[in-house]
Amino acid sequence: MAEEFFNALFEEEDELTDWQLLVAYNGQRHREKIQGSKKVTQTWRMKERMKTVSVALVLCLNVGVDPPDVVKTSPCARLECWIDPLASSPQKALEAIGSNLQKQYERWQPRARYKQSLDPTVDEIKKLCTSLRRNAKSYTQYIPLSVYDLQTWMGSPSIYVYDCSNAGIIVESFKQFSVQRENEVESSGINGNQRFGSPTPAVSSVKNCIQLAACGTNELLPMNPELPADLFTSCLTTPIKIALRWYVLQNTGRLVPNVTLELVDKVPGQLNDRRTMLGELNWIFTAITDTIAWNTLPRDLFQKLFRQDLLVASLFRNFLLAERIMRSYNCTPISGPKLPPTYQHPMWQAWDMALDLCLQQLPRLLEDDNAQFQHSPFFTEQLTAFQVWLSYGSEARNPPEQLPIVLQASYRYHTLLFMNMLVLLSQVHRLRALDLLGRFLDLGPWAVSLALSVGIFPYVLKLLQSSARELRPLLVFIWAKILSVDSGEHRTMAAFVLTMIVNNYRQGQEAALQGNVISCCLEQLTDSNALLRQWLALCLGKVWSSFDNARWCGVRDSAHEKLYTLLTDPSPEVRAAAVFALGTFINNSVTERNDHANNIDLAVGMTLSSVVHDGSPLVRKELTVALSALVAQFETQFVAVAAQMYEEERNAAVVAAEAPGGWNVVAISGTASIPQNVSGSGTSVDSMLESADSSSSLESSISPQPDRLKRVQSNPIISGLAYSSIYITVWKSLVSIGRDPNKEVRDMAKKVLNTVRLKASTSAKPTQVLQTSSIPHSAPSSPSNRLPVNMNQGTPPQNHIEDMMTRSGTGMKRDFTSPRLSATSSTLSASQFSRHRKMFDKGPNTIVDDKDSDSSGTKKLEISTEFFEWSCRHFAQPVMQLSEDQDPESVLRLEREYRFLRNSQIRVEAREEQSRAGFNRLDVEVFVNKNTGVPNVIKFHPYESYVAVAERDGVSFWEWIQGVKIGYIYNENAKSTRITSMDFINPHDNTLLLCGSDDGAVRLWRNCLSETNEGKELVTAFQAITEMIPTARRSGLVLDWEQETGTLLASGDVRIIRLWDAQTETKVQDIPTGADSCVTSMASDSFGRSLLIAGCGDGTVRLYDRRLAPSECRVMTLREHSRWILKVHLQRGSEGKIISASSGGDIRFWDPRFTESVRTLNLQQGLTSVEIHKHADVLACGSLNQYVAIYNQSGDVLSTIKYHEGFLGQRIGSISCMAFHPYMVKLAAGSTDSYISVYSTPPRRS
């Protein structure tokens, strides 16, 4: 029979492979902390920008007169600004040179004011410098001419270009005098010396001045007659022309040996026309020099010199060329700030190659007017190289400043990125460049930061204005990436961009409001894309955050009601976003509140209370923040509720008797608050509010001290039992969250609760009241008094209020004060106050401090989460490439393949052992040790060689092959609770530990075997069962996990079986058990039959079909047992049999088609635990009488274990829990003496 059982089992069982199995609780919200990306210091944004306003062109040529300290060669360089000064009269030549020099500088900064000073005197220079500084909105003092005087006249910041021999002397003197000036100011305590009665000059710091010098201290300018005399100025102002001439003068190998200086001067085209040869060379030159600077300079210096002022950027870009050319003539240009040497950078070879390819066409273009210019392949090749890098490069890249500059990959990487930026504005390469740029940005925040440091921002900003439709998806993607760091679904990205625009930015909110963003978002809330729904809700939450106009626009569009549908969304992120939006909706600090606003806020708060038991901590955190905003809006009312609840908590629950089904009869003294249901399902919010509006207000019999509470505007609408019910419901929701199994959620709620309770305790002081009437007046019934049994919770009918008042002895009709419930035991006489007194009116002989402050000194409620910042991380992380678990070459994928191969091998090897289990002994003790506490639950890991042993509040992990303890985890359940259920989630892959405690809480843990407590992570925690019923004998929380479907079944000391979906973290359905006792064991079939079996404390075994409606899903009740059910087991397969065992010692086998058992095994009574192997013909029974009996399903005794092995082995204790290995024939048993053992079949003889 055992062989038939084994064969049938493997023929009928259709197990999913490990690759097909669901990996539950493995989303980003489970693997990482809910916090935003680390703030990256954005060096590309300069706090202080520099702009060239005025330019002085000072030419001291003295045409025809050579300087006395320089002996010129003959022939020597004569050209000045490409003009021969000896070709005309000295004055005309001087004017022509000055005019040409101004044109050359205007090419780089056309908007600056230029002033020429030709062969000036000292007074003229003084006057010129003073006027320039005055035009720059600053005044300086001037003194007799020297470098020191020049600093004084020019002030700071300024740019100096020295094109003369021994120019380095000026630079050194400038630095020396700058330091001297700063020392003088520091020692004298003033900003300068008063000279000539002029105003005090600003201190000129060398750090704020830029200097460019043609050569060093002891160097002369080159006198080559083939070069211009102002070679340095030519490099700075006409770089392409001088670069071509210098290239021809270098007698190195060239593609075109016949190009002469005369031909170079005839290069066709315009510098600003990229379609021509000259324009393309200028474009390539800009790309190469910027790339050299970005690879060489520190980031902050690059931003200062190359990304602020056009003239400064052009001068320094051309300075790199000047360094290369002038070093070939034994001159070393000097700059301040000092730049690292760049004249040997490898990118100059690319420049030489570009010149070769262009000059190769020059003779043909000059000879044939119809010849077409062939564009250089420079940018195309660079884009191809960048594409290759992206294809084979890893996303795990360090920032560029951390990469060794000597590495070719580093240089190549930086170069290709920069080239891609410069191609963006080209219509020819734009689409391809944008695509590659998007792929690069998708590598992560570090890539975005690098791109921003290059200067991508203004490029993309300009492209956003383009009307080309083919660019829009790429631009939206790139813009989303930029926004995700600096502060594909394209609609989702567009929603993200809009959200970032309105995030804490009032002008953005106003623009969005004018652009009907609210209505546009509301129209798409039902979209099938979960990420889009999430960002639409976040966008709405940011639009009306602290912006009342947008809030009322949302009210007109019923935005809050439309967001209600997202509270039941399948995606936890969407639900959290909806709660976030509703929280900001009610968290608007409005000075003047009206009845309509109060109604809306309370309705939203009441609706939010319905998600208090959401399965995702992500949602509950946002709910806590949202409810805290409501508490802050109605602080006084909630303080009164807290005081009332405090009084009720003094009444303890007493167990009066035990019902036949095992339930306890609980007697509660005192009055009970309404509503009893936290979710407030007794009445709708609308009916409550309508009733509150229509009912007359009755003054509360007891009111808190108004001078101790924060004063709010009086509102007659906030009155009546309906509003009191809302406040109590919201408060109970917060109290429930204050007991949340997730510590972070719990601590947030406790902060709110403690703040309100502290204010309630300081305000609840007795007040002396004088009776002014001889008629005895007793207090009316509190709004929290118990309602009649046949009355729904909510606003009672008016005649009931009158009846309560009549019975209370007042003899008159009175009003409730809506929100203020009883806070003390003292009473106030009805005749003491006016009948129509406004809420918190001072009343007679009462002194109230009008200051809007808390006398208790407590702080305002300020709690927040980083859910919004965490959501932004989605766009900062790669989204265009394969995830790590999908990439076949990733480490994660290879590790997973190894695990799955190992799992398959373990299953195959176990089959032979399973086939022998029905007739083999199972009593070889392979492991025994004493646990730290009495084991409640014990579980084998299916594929690792350890067992998990659950104690009262923790789980120990024992390596049963080596016999050592390898870990322990504290479950964090409440002190008065214990762990009653445990299982492994995703044991085939990354294992999680599921722990359920008898208060209905479920916690999932990751890295349970970590050596440090910091390594152990709480993945999620939620309240699987919320209404645990106290019984004399409790089963606690009973769980059953279906790995194939990702469904968690929860029951126990309740009358329902609750199904949770692990993917959506929502409650799927509640199945009524129909039993008068608790559920003790559950089993289910996850392979399509939807059959669910529950064993109960009254001995019944109940079968449910979860596909049917809750009222019809119980299809069968098996009643042959008479004692507590210890185990129900469902064999897998299409005709799986049911096995049930009770503490009475009877084990019954059932055919699910019949109500009578097909076979029964009658064993000894006193069983405490029964386990049935899923794949082998073996079952184990643990007894209170200190033994374990092993049977096959035919009833044959295979083994009886009474003693531990070894010399003088002691008697085992009473069995508290047992478990079979899911595949191997191994049995783990825990006893009440805290010992745990593992038993195996005898090893097979070879």
Automatic annotation (TrEMBL):
Superkingdom as given in the UniProt entry: Eukaryota
Region of interest called Disordered, as start-end residue ranges on this chain: 678-707, 763-788
Identification of the protein by name: Raptor N-terminal CASPase-like domain-containing protein
Keyword ATP-binding recorded: no
Family: Belongs to the WD repeat RAPTOR family.
Cellular component aspect of the GO annotation: cytoplasm; TORC1 complex
GO molecular function annotations of the record: protein-macromolecule adaptor activity
One Pfam assignment: HEAT
A single GO BP: cellular response to starvation
SMART domains: Raptor_N (SM01302), WD40 (SM00320)
Residue ranges with Polar residues bias: 763-772
Residue stretches making up the Raptor N-terminal CASPase-like domain: 49-175
Xref: InterPro entries: ARM-like, ARM-type_fold, HEAT, Raptor, Raptor_N, WD40/YVTN_repeat-like_dom_sf, WD40_repeat_dom_sf, WD40_rpt
SUPFAM superfamilies in alphabetical order: ARM repeat, WD40 repeat-like
Composition-biased stretches (Low complexity): 684-703, 773-784
Keyword DNA damage: no
Keyword set, alphabetical order: Repeat, WD repeat
